[in-house]
């Protein structure tokens, strides 16, 4: 028994373990660096040190150079024209270590490449990078799919751990966490390495073997980033969040020791990565998610209803939310409606477990009501209500052949033919955000006495900006098993009582600060940010203390600890301090980030 264990056992016997633990922790934190090192500092590692790291990671250390650099000085070349065509492809962006899916956010952040990146192929590469960053006091960044809205997977003057090359996916018929067989029944599952994207997981689990795994809606999002935020997909009203089904994770925290985390081993760390936010507790190298039986059918309902006056639009909203509450507020229905300019209601909903006729029957009373007032409402597009084999939902070839308008393909030479992205996500590729806000709307607003307030607030908000209501991102009305699983995650419990996540956001795709011809229009951006704020203020009036989803939220959220995690924050903070007492892992508005400057380089009490 070593001295520390002996001391701890003696202290436990005397009942002083918590006090001792606290003081050990404080001592460790006090020795923690106050400032991180930049390339201009004398303490920045020497060439020889970097060469040693390169050797340790099998030559996978990259000196990062952004392809955008060449276009800063000479933007009018054919090469730059070609680059900006490539930048419309999210796979091209994801495959480039210097780039992120969003280009930046007004007055918040601009995508900046790291100085060096470790293109990790295995857990040992991650361990070497974590140890190197900690020992050399570097700003460490982790990037998987690169889809962070808040810019948390990029930072200038940093060392990046890029997990893109870790993409193995292995299915299990009956998985039990190591050493957990007494406490856990075997489950069908899939083990996924940290750099995989959902498109590959859906191909392996659904298209190839006909099972369901809860992942993200956007298929190019990274698996590890999504799970750590919680993670919603189109069918979350039936299957809850991705984090709800995490069975095991392999994690490298700040001490560089590889840890398994599941219900029986490191259960605190396990709970924290289920919604506690990416990039804060360590680097997840692989994770195992339970899979589910696949329903026979998935489907979609697309409507675009235009009201001819403000009064008619108010009636339309009132009628729709009553109809939603009576007929759609259940595990069969997910996705969204958007209140668009010109008094238009766009319905883009999905169903699971219903055939075309069943879905039509559900919608008929609402459509009859709309058709009963032709002077008030018109269809801006022909309505579509349909269903298809669930197994084909993420099948790229099926979609190309049967529903070609729904997808774009990665057409680059050698790209897997399974790689597609939703046409609806195109306008977020390379986007520069002007504003982005979200709140969870409580299901009490669907009750009879709440509906009027809900529709009044939505109408008022829609005078300023489009309001996007994602029903699948609130778990009220979800299947009981889904709700029970989601309860045991670190997300703000407000998600359980919310019927939808309301998102109000705007920006411009393919916009890159500093690149002539692609610069954001800052005065337009400011005006739009103001209108987004005003629109969200209308919703805050009916949900003043509403939480917000950490992965899809406002960079400037003032009470982020409460908004993202509610009563779970103190527990998350204590887990953070246990596994990362010196704050090696920093992300904007991540757990424990209040101890650091906005750029993550300086401890707040050291300034
Ligand atoms: C176009 C688009 C569509 C989206 N659609 C959805 C959706 O349908 N449902 C939903 O829930 N969310 C959605 N999101 C939000 C998305 O879930 C989050 O942005 C998520 O964090 C992205 O993960 P990533 O790996 O792609 O991104 P990254 O930017 O690489 O990572 C996000 C965060 O996680 C950290 N991280 C990444 N990998 C690891 C790791 N291995 N270990 C530790 N930390 C890590 C990063 O440091 C960063 O802080 C969408 C985002 C975009 C841009």
Describe this structure in words.
The structure is a single chain. By secondary structure, this protein is α+β, with helices and mostly antiparallel strands. Helix content is 33%, strand content 22%. A 9-stranded mixed beta sheet has the order 3-2-20-22-21-15-16-14-17. Strands 7-8-12-10-11 form a 5-stranded antiparallel beta sheet. A hairpin with a 6-residue loop joins strand 10 (246-252) and strand 11. The longest helix is centred in the C-terminal third of the chain and has 21 residues, at 522-542. The radius of gyration is 24 Å and the shape is globular. The relative contact order is 0.13. The site of flavin-adenine dinucleotide (FAD) has 34 residues, from strand 5, helix 9 and strand 12.
Average residue pLDDT: 94
Rg from Cα: 24 Å
| Fraction in beta strands | 15-25%
Number of discrete helical segments: 20
Helix proportion: 25-40%
For the terminal residues, how far apart are their CA atoms?
A: 41 Å
**What class, by secondary structure content?**
alpha+beta
Shape: globular
Q: In order across it, which strands form the biggest sheet?
A: 3-2-20-22-21-15-16-14-17
By DSSP, the count of extended strands is: 22
Bound molecules: flavin-adenine dinucleotide
The main sheet comes to: 9 strands, mixed
**pLDDT < 50 runs, ≥5 residues:** 1-28
């Amino acid at each position: 028994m070593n001295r520390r264990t002996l001391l701890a056992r003696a202290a436990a016997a005397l009942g002083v373990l918590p006090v001792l633990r606290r003081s050990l922790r404080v001592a460790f934190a006090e020795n923690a660096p106050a400032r991180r090192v930049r390339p201009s500092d004398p303490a920045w590692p020497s060439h020889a040190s970097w060469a040693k790291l390169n050797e340790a990671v099998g030559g996978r250390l990259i000196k990062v150079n952004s392809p955008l650099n060449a276009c800063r000085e000479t933007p009018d070349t054919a090469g730059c024209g070609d680059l900006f065509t490539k930048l419309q492809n999210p796979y091209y962006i994801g495959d480039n270590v210097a780039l992120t899916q969003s280009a930046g956010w007004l007055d918040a952040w601009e995508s900046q490449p790291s100085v060096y990146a470790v293109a990790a192929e295995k857990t040992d590469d991650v361990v070497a990078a974590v140890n190197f960053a900690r020992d050399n006091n570097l700003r460490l960044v982790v990037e998987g799919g690169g889809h962070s809205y808040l810019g948390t997977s990029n930072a200038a003057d940093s060392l990046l751990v890029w997990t893109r090359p870790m993409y193995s996916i292995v299915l299990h018929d009956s998985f039990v966490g190591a050493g957990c067989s007494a406490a856990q029944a075997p489950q069908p599952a899939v083990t996924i390495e940290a750099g995989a994207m959902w498109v590959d997981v859906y191909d392996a689990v659904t298209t190839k073997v006909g099972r369901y795994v809860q992942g993200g809606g956007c298929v190019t999002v990274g698996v590890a980033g999504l799970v750590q935020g919680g993670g919603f997909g189109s069918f979350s009203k039936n299957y809850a969040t991705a984090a709800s089904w995490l069975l095991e994770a392999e994690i490298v925290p700040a001490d560089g020791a590889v840890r398994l985390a599941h219900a029986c081993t490191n259960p605190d760390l396990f709970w924290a990565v289920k919604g506690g936010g990416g990039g804060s507790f360590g680097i997840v190298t692989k994770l195992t998610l339970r899979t589910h039986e696949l329903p026979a059918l998935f489907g979609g309902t697309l409507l675009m209803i235009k009201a001819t006056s403000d009064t008619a639009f108010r009636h339309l909203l009132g009628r729709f939310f009553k109809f939603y509450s009576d007929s759609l507020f259940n595990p069969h229905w997910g996705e969204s409606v958007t209140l668009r300019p010109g008094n238009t209601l766009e319905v883009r909903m999905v169903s699971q477990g219903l055939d075309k006729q069943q879905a039509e029957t559900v919608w008929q009373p609402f459509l009859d009501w709309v058709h009963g007032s032709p002077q008030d409402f018109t269809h801006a597009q022909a309505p579509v209500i349909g269903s298809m084999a669930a197994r084909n939902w993420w099948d790229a070839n099926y979609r190309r052949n049967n529903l070609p308008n729904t997808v774009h393909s990665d057409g680059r030479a050698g790209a897997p033919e399974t790689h597609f992205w939703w046409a609806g996500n195109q306008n977020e590729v390379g986007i520069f955000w002007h504003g982005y806000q979200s709140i969870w709307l409580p299901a009490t607003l669907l009750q009879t006495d709440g509906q009027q307030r809900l529709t009044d607030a939505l109408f008022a908000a829609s005078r300023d900006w489009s309001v996007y209501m994602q029903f699948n991102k609130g778990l009220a009305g979800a299947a009981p098993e889904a709700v029970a699983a989601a309860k045991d995650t670190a997300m703000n419990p407000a998600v359980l009582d919310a019927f939808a996540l309301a998102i109000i956001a705007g920006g411009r795709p393919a916009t890159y600060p500093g690149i002539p011809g692609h610069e954001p229009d800052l005065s337009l951006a400011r005006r739009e940010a103001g209108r987004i704020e005003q629109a969200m203020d209308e919703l805050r009036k009916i949900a003043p203390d509403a939480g917000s989803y950490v992965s899809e939220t406002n960079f400037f959220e003032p009470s982020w600890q409460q908004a993202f995690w509610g009563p779970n924050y103190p527990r998350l903070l204590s887990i953070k301090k246990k596994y990362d007492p010196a704050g090696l892992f920093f992300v904007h508005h991540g757990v424990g980030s209040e101890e650091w400057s906005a750029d993550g380089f300086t401890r707040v009490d050291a300034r």
